[in-house]
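On clarity, I found the account of how folds are encoded harder to follow than it need be. What matters is that the chain and its backbone geometry are given together, residue for residue. For the editor and my fellow referees, an illustration may be useful. For illustration, here is how one protein appears when written out as sequence plus structure tokens:

___
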Amino acid sequence: MNELWTYLEANWTQIRGWTLTTLWLAAVPVMAGLVLALPCGWLAHRYRWAHGPFVSAMSIVYTVPSLVMFLVLPELLGTKILDPVNVVAALTLYTFALLVRTVADGLASVPAHTLATAAAMGHTARQQLLSVQLPLAVPVIGAGVRVAAVSNASLVSVASVVGTSQLGQLFIAGNNVGSLAPIILGLVFFVTIALAFDLIIVIITRLLTPWHKAVAS
């Protein structure tokens, strides 16, 4: 324990910088991926013939190893291998690939009679989507976002292998000096970030679905 505190105190400035970098590298792709997945998930839900092929293609993207993605994207984007934009782009792709199906499934989970009631009240297709389908799909979509956020928090660490400066460097440092202290600190920080992301998304999901609390009570 003393070794952990000693290492943390000696390297606090650098670790604090790595923590901030890790936070935005993990958070930005979740938001960007969700924004991209919402319209594409709606298309996959709206046009059922496209659902299977589109979801299958996204599943293939999600199975590409993250290290391969970090190495290939610089060639495709014309960026330097150490550029953080490669990490953001890769994790955005993973988030998008995961959430497209989640959004489609969330929209499909809305009961047909609920949509029929909305239509009978004069709601247009667009109004049904924005005021009925999306709000009712929030719990399903929120669950997918939680998975994506926690996954991103862990995948960021892999980028340290290609030299991206973030908390994953603690694992490299521990391996280089033969010490468990930085490795344990890295694990603690990444688990804490993942849990924080998960808690924030749970809170946002509950705020967006106040009727769930009312029904439960």
Remarks:
- Residues 12-46 form the longest helix (35 residues).
- The chain has a mean pLDDT of 89.
- The two ends are 45 Å apart (CA to CA).
- The CA atoms of residues 103 and 141 lie 6 Å apart.
